[in-house]
């Protein structure tokens, strides 16, 4: 064991000596050119921008010479101990976020012979901003080669290198993010509740139909957002649940249901394009990164209501999609590009390999198939995705009831015009006075006759509701009340049904005084918009009509003969003085 270890150590020392000699030789060779701008940085590397890798002869400046001879080479990394050269098509100035520590490498700049980024067709830049970062103060305005997000080919474009930071004096509102442009700035609203050039206008999601409230909830607009309130008879927060379809789960969405136009190789199969996927190299990558017609497609198995999407970069290498579009289809034949306000939406993608970026769709879209089309990317348009669908909240789905008031007591909820009756005794007992706790008029509704059993009080609730109970009260400050009654209900105001229990018309127990409220529950919930109350029996002190002038005599007969010595007259209403 010791002998083998000594040999091993001796080999490592020899390798280390050779490597040191190689580094020393390269540095000595380059030292004469230090004044020309060539330099090296030990234990650092530029990651993710290598376009060519090859093994060199230890102790020679071969890596440097090949880089100097190749116009595309902007810098290079050297892997120490094993003398491997990595040619980069970017500099650390162009991509400072990718300049990282590596104890086994060192980074070398090309120096004055480096061709400026974007100055030749074979070295296109992603943007004018990247060119300015790469060239610094040496950047000049002019035409440069840029990657086209449409054709996939390099195009010549004008870059104004005098661009300044316009965001210094931006006017973005409501926590919007300022994005610096070539000649101005733009505001990226931080939520879907704001719009306008400076994100200054509130979007009324309720009015525009952009909310996520359930059908059994009421939407109310708020600044930059909205609130959902459950309708009577339902509990929960009133919102639809935007939950994952399950693209991450191979049992939910099988491998053969995730396809693509093509793929780079067997390490980047389409079905590796699942969120948090670790198989292969952890993500889908197309064969040709310049082909803007490429897409990743997910078949969800059935038509769903799509409410959101999420993306992630490739797990193993620095490749991710920075922006993308969506196409959706119900049948896999007819496709629709996702739009908002009639404009194709370009979704912001990722800025690293691992972070998940989720977006909500303002307009819920019915689809079975979803395609992700990369628009811009970092190194390579790789993707891992998840799709989100609307799920009805469990509490709302189960239709759990809270038997609460419709709001007949509130004339803002039920206006006077929606309360009618077969007749009214006079203007003091109007039908719209038949509300619980009413104080107007005589404080209640009375029919014109006390003998007509077809008289009724009707309430129009404005929409069909699930009626679970009723409550009654007598006339305020009097001895008049209904002691029993029946109900008729209707959804359209034409066809009426008498409320039954066990196939028998239910006679509800009414009141025994003028103030107490008597509530009756309906054993069978009944769908209705209109409800009619039919008095059956009432308190035995009917209302007598008095005089209308100072001379006329008004006479009333008593239906039932009554033995009495003393008679009291109780004044209910009077004119001027009783």
UniProtKB/TrEMBL annotation:
Coiled coil: none annotated. GO terms for biological process: animal organ development; system development. The keyword Transmembrane helix applies. PROSITE patterns: ASX_HYDROXYL, EGF_2, EGF_3, EGF_CA, FA58C_1, FA58C_3, PAN. Keywords: Calcium, Disulfide bond, EGF-like domain, Glycoprotein, Membrane, Repeat, Signal, Transmembrane, Transmembrane helix. It is a single-pass type I membrane protein. InterPro entries: EGF, EGF-like_Ca-bd_dom, EGF-type_Asp/Asn_hydroxyl_site, EGF_Ca-bd_CS, FA58C, Galactose-bd-like_sf, NELL2-like_EGF, Pan_app. Residues 35-111 form the Apple domain. Residues 163-200, 202-243 form the EGF-like domain. GO terms for molecular function: calcium ion binding. This is EGF-like repeat and discoidin I-like domain-containing protein 3. GO terms for cellular component: membrane. It holds the Pfam family EGF_3. It comes from Pocillopora damicornis (Cauliflower coral). Residues 242-390, 403-541 form the F5/8 type C domain. The lineage of its organism: Eukaryota, Metazoa, Cnidaria, Anthozoa, Hexacorallia. Its main location: membrane. It is found in: Membrane.
């Amino acid at each position: 064991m010791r002998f083998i270890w000594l040999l091993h150590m001796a080999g490592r020392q020899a390798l280390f000596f050779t490597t040191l000699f190689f580094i020393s030789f390269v540095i000595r060779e380059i030292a004469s050119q230090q004044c020309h701008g060539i330099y090296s940085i030990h234990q650092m590397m530029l990651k993710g921008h290598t376009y060519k890798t090859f093994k060199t002869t230890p102790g020679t400046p071969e890596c440097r010479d090949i880089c100097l001879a190749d116009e595309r080479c902007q810098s290079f990394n050297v892997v120490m101990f094993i003398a491997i050269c990595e040619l980069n098509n970017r500099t650390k100035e162009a991509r400072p976020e990718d300049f990282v520590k590596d104890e086994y490498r060192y980074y070398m700049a090309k120096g004055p012979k480096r061709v400026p980024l974007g100055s030749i067709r074979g070295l296109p830049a992603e943007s004018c901003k990247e060119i300015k970062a790469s060239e610094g103060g040496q950047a000049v305005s002019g035409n440069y080669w840029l990657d086209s997000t449409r054709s996939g080919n390099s195009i010549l474009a004008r870059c104004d290198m005098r661009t300044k930071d316009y965001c210094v004096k931006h006017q973005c509102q409501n926590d919007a993010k300022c994005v610096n442009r070539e000649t101005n700035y733009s505001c990226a609203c931080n939520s879907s509740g704001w719009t306008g050039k400076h994100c200054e206008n509130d979007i009324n999601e309720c009015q525009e139909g952009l909310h996520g409230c359930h059908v059994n909830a009421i939407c109310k607009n708020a600044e930059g957002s909205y609130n959902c309130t459950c309708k009577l008879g339902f509990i929960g927060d009133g919102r639809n649940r935007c939950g994952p379809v399950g693209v991450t789960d191979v049992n939910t969405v099988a491998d053969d249901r995730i396809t693509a136009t093509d793929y780079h190789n067997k390490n980047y199969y389409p079905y590796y394009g699942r969120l948090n996927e670790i198989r292969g190299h952890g993500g889908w990558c197309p064969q040709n990164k310049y082909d803007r017609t490429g897409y990743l497609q997910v078949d969800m198995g059935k038509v769903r209501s799509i409410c959101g999407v999420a993306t992630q970069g490739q797990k193993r290498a620095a490749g991710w999609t920075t922006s993308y579009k969506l196409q959706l289809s119900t049948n896999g034949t007819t496709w629709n590009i996702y739009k908002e306000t009639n404009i194709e939406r370009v979704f912001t993608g990722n800025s690293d390999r691992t972070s998940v970026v989720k977006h909500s769709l303002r307009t819920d879209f019915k689809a079975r198939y979803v395609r992700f089309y990369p628009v811009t990317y970092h190194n390579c348009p790789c993707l891992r995705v998840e799709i989100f669908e609307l799920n009805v909240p469990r509490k709302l789905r189960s239709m759990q009831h809270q038997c609460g008031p419709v709001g007949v007591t509130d004339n803002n909820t039920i206006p006077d015009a929606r309360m009618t009756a077969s007749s009214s005794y006079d203007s003091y007992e109007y039908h719209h006075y038949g509300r619980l706790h009413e104080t107007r008029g005589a404080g209640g509704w009375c029919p014109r006759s006390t003998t007509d059993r077809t008289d009724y009080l009707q309430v129009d609730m404005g929409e069909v509701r699930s009626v679970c109970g009723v409550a009654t009260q007598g006339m305020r400050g009097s001895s008049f009340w209904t002691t029993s009654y029946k109900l008729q209900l209707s959804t359209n105001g034409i066809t009426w049904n008498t409320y039954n229990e066990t196939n028998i018309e239910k006679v509800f127990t009414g009141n025994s005084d003028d103030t107490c409220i008597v509530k009756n529950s309906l054993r069978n919930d009944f769908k209705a918009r209109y409800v009619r109350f039919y008095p059956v029996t009432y308190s035995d002190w009917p209302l007598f009509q008095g005089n209308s002038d100072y001379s006329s005599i008004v006479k009333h007969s008593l239906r039932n003969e009554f033995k009495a010595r003393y008679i009291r007259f109780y004044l209910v209403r009077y004119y001027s003085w009783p």
